[in-house]
Amino acid sequence: GNSVTQMEGPVTLSEEAFLTINCTYTATGYPSLFWYVQYPGEGLQLLLKATKADDKGSNKGFEATYRKETTSFHLEKGSVQVSDSAVYFCALSEADSGYALNFGKGTSLLVTP
Amino acid sequence: KAGVTQTPRYLIKTRGQQVTLSCSPISGHRSVSWYQQTPGQGLQFLFEYFSETQRNKGNFPGRFSGRQFSNSRSEMNVSTLELGDSALYLCASSIDRGRSTEAFFGQGTRLTVV
Questions:
Q1: Residue B20 contacts by C-beta under 8 Å, 6 or more apart in sequence?
Q2: Closest CA of chain A from B38, distance in Å
């Protein structure tokens, strides 16, 4: 089967700090990789995605690169804002599991002014 | 266009009862998936429906079932509720499924079993 492991939170950062949230995966085939974000009281929103090795997904200043050699998809942002406070989920999908999203446990991020 | 709509937003049920949750996907989306979110287990896939047929199923007991109607709206049903079924149930819709298909999530239904 497949699985996703991401760093435990909560992560607390000051505004304008650099953010890294680690994510590694195991998969039987060639998965697509995603980062979703969940703001308080809301559902999940797709933040970015990458569908093949060496692809870089980016959105709203966030970036993640699909690294097949290290089976990783770490999320980074150069300068976080208070509005980035949320829970971030790394996920994968692949054909072997019918493209169902398999999520990591989530990492809670709190950005303080 | 309107997003994914889930009703109701909150539910309180008693052990042993059954419950039905509803999901209206984005117009034009034919695939609807359901996920359970709990603090302990995180987000877990329940099942996916496409064109009124269950196309994929996660590892949940038979008490969890679903269906999809011809207009792509979907319902999920949980029978003989247990305390452990308390969770946020999220519905996601997509045009279809595939390597790069984006899933759009609703705000969820918060089910509390007492």
A1: B75, B76, B77
A2: 10
Min Cα separation A25/chain B (Å):
16
**Per-residue pLDDT reduced to its tens digit, B31-55:** 999 999 999 899 999 999 999 999 9
The pLDDT tens digits for A25-84 are: 999 888 999 999 999 888 899 999 999 999 999 999 999 999 999 999 999 999 999 999
Quote the DSSP letter at residue A72. B
Structure tokens at B51: 């064109």
Cβ separation of A43 and B107 shorter than 8 Å?
Answer: yes
CB contact, 8 Å: B39 with chain A?
Answer: no
A-chain CB neighbours of B45 within 8 Å are 100-102
The answer to whether B34 and B91 are in contact (CB under 8 A) is: yes
Q: Give B43's contacts in chain A (Cβ within 8 Å).
A: 89, 91, 101, 103, 106
> Is A102 exposed, middle or buried, given 0-12, 13-18 or 19+ CB atoms closer than 10 A?
buried
Whether residue A95 contacts residue A88, with contact meaning beta carbons closer than 8 Å, is answered with: no
- Output the six-digit token pair for A35: 């980062």
